[in-house]
Amino acid sequence: MFRIPCPHCGPRNRTEFHHVGERSSRPDPRSTTPGEWRSYLYGQRNFADWTTETWYHGAGCRRFVTVDRHTATNEIRPTVEPTAVTEATTVTEPTAATDAHPGHR
Ligand SMILES: [Zn+2]
After folding, report:
1. Would you say residue 57 lies in a domain?
2. Is 71 helix (H, G, I), strand (E, B) or coil?
3. CB atoms within 10 A of CB 27
4. Which residues pair with 67 in a beta bridge?
5. What is the whole-number distance in angstroms between the Cα of residue 58 and the centre of ligand 1?
6. Residue pair 14/1 in contact by the 8 Å Cβ criterion
7. What is the DSSP letter of 16?
8. 4-53: per-residue pLDDT in tens?
9. Is residue 20 part of a domain?
10. I want to staple 32 with a disulfide (CB 3.0 to 4.6 A). Which of 16, 36, 67, 78 is the partner?
């Protein structure tokens, strides 16, 4: 069992999530060959190393979360995107609260 750091709910048990799969870039359907499209839909690298995956937090915020996970040890590394969102939220909230109540300074 391992915990997944949800950027909206915090660290949660893995059982709250559904594994969607490895992240991969979607090819352009207008210019890709049938073999490339089949590889995108069904091809998984499936090796013992770090991989970037998408998980769905069905028992929590019901949002998709991207994490880096080692497939052999289930060690989780934080991703860059949630950290950037958290820092931006932390910086803007105190400023907005101060401006909303100018008489309480
Ligand atoms: Zn969540």
Report:
1. yes
2. coil
3. 13
4. 53
5. 8
6. yes
7. G
8. 999 999 999 999 999 998 988 889 989 999 999 998 888 888 889 999 99
9. yes
10. 36
**Residues 64-71, mean pLDDT to the nearest whole number:** 94
| Residue 105 pLDDT | 40
Range of the domain at 70: 3-90
- The per-residue b/e assignment along 79-102, b for 16 or more CB within 10 angstroms, e otherwise, is eeebeeeeeeeeeeeeeeeeeeee
For residue 79, how far is its CA from the centre of ligand 1 (angstroms)? 14
The region, left, alpha or beta by phi > 0 then psi within -120 to 50, assigned to residue 10 is: left
CATH code at 62?
3.30.2270.10
Report how far ligand 1's centroid is from the alpha carbon of 59 (Å): 8
Count the domains in the chain: 1
Query: What rounded mean pLDDT belongs to the chain?
Result: 79
Residue 69 has pLDDT above 60, yes or no: yes
With respect to residue 98, please indicate whether it lies within any of the assigned structural domains: no
Residue 104 lies in a domain: no
Distance in Å, CA 52 to ligand 1 centroid = 18
- Does the structure show a pLDDT above 70 at 102? no
